[in-house]
Amino acid sequence: MTMLEIKDFGKRFTIHHLEKTMPAIEHINFSLEAGEFIGIVGKSGSGKSTILKSIYRSYLPDTGNILYNSARFGQVDLATISEREMLYLRQYEIGYVSQFLNVMPRTTCRQLVINALLEMGESEEVALKESGEALTHFEMDPKLWDSYPNTFSGGEKLRLNIAMATVKNPRLLLLDEPTASLDQQSKVKVREMIEKLKNKGTTLVGIFHDIEFMEGLCDKVYDIQSRLQTVVKETITYES
Ligand SMILES: Nc1ncnc2c1ncn2[C@@H]1O[C@H](COP(=O)(O)OP(=O)(O)OP(=O)(O)O)[C@@H](O)[C@H]1O
């Protein structure tokens, strides 16, 4: 089943003080089957984040379609779907992790992860247990669990962001440089979590500066320069 299909996607930005509209990216096409992981590569400023933000509908595309196979709504075009439907998808189906933490103020680190689970309909008891497991997995110092994250370091904010997105077991997860400010040990933890989600069937789109990190993890790579989508890892199926 095709989970995500980007067809002739393009996005322009208007720079108001220059009274100019400039294309950020155009003619982007790639597709993903359910459970696949595609890595997007391209030089700085080539439009990688713009693609991810448009899938999450933080940006509205100017051309093309972003076809997503929703569990709730069937196939929808994320370029034109209603705000209400998009809010539903963000809550239940599509996760987004960036380097920037954008959360409710005066909410503790642990409560933010609990809230993510409660949003999915988990009981308080399960949410409390799973939030502890997630924060432990990402080696968040227990001293920080009941603190507000506004004073957290870059790496702590990022690990909290990943914990909040991954506890929800999203159908589609968008990763915008999720290892940018992490040390090697934390990167390994992120990789383990991605592998776990893949095994559970999550479809992933990721941007990584660290190409080595993607190795053996991605099924496909989309290269913005060449506009080519390449299969890098064949899925091995065993016959019983
Ligand atoms: N909100 C915006 N307003 C105006 N221009 C923007 C906006 N967002 C992105 N751009 C421009 O669009 C182009 C693509 O930006 P984008 O952040 O998608 O690139 P990127 O490939 O993710 O870069 P990097 O690897 O450096 O993070 C850039 O030239 C950028 O300046």
TrEMBL record:
Keywords: ATP-binding, Nucleotide-binding. InterPro entries: AAA+_ATPase (IPR003593), ABC_transporter-like_ATP-bd (IPR003439), P-loop_NTPase (IPR027417). SUPFAM superfamilies: P-loop containing nucleoside triphosphate hydrolases (SSF52540). It holds the Pfam family ABC_tran. SMART domains: AAA. One of its GO terms (molecular function) is ATP hydrolysis activity. The keyword Cell membrane does not apply. The keyword NADP does not apply. Residues 4-240 form the ABC transporter domain. Belongs to the ABC transporter superfamily. This is ATP-binding cassette domain-containing protein.
